[in-house]
């Protein structure tokens, strides 16, 4: 596997991977900075973990597939 396969800005999956990672960071910031109830913490934490999982799946898919020819 080549790590350069992750950089495919012409594919939507690449942008989805970045979006999932940014949203996970925003959720983590919200958990630490905002006064949330326990239910809010659990909900935002669950969303953050789901985004991490989806981001990893998108990265795995990008690594497995051959990049499209130019």
Descriptive account of the structure:
The protein has 70 residues and is mainly alpha-helical. The protein is 70% helix and 0% strand. It has helices spanning 12-33, 38-64. Helix 1 (12-33) packs antiparallel against helix 2 (38-64). The radius of gyration is 15 Å and the shape is elongated. It starts with 11 loop residues before the first helix and ends in a 6-residue tail after the last helix. The mean pLDDT is 91.
The arrangement of helices and strands along the chain is: HH
How many strand units? 0
Average per-residue pLDDT, rounded, comes to 91
Low-confidence stretches: none
- Structural class, from helix and strand content? mainly alpha
Most strands sheet = none
What would the principal axes of the Cα set say about the shape?
elongated
Write the topology of this structure:
Layout: H1 12-33, H2 38-64
List the keywords.
70 residues; mainly alpha; elongated; single chain
State the gist of this model.
With 70 residues, the protein is mainly α. It contains two helices and no strands. The chain is elongated, with a radius of gyration of 15 Å.
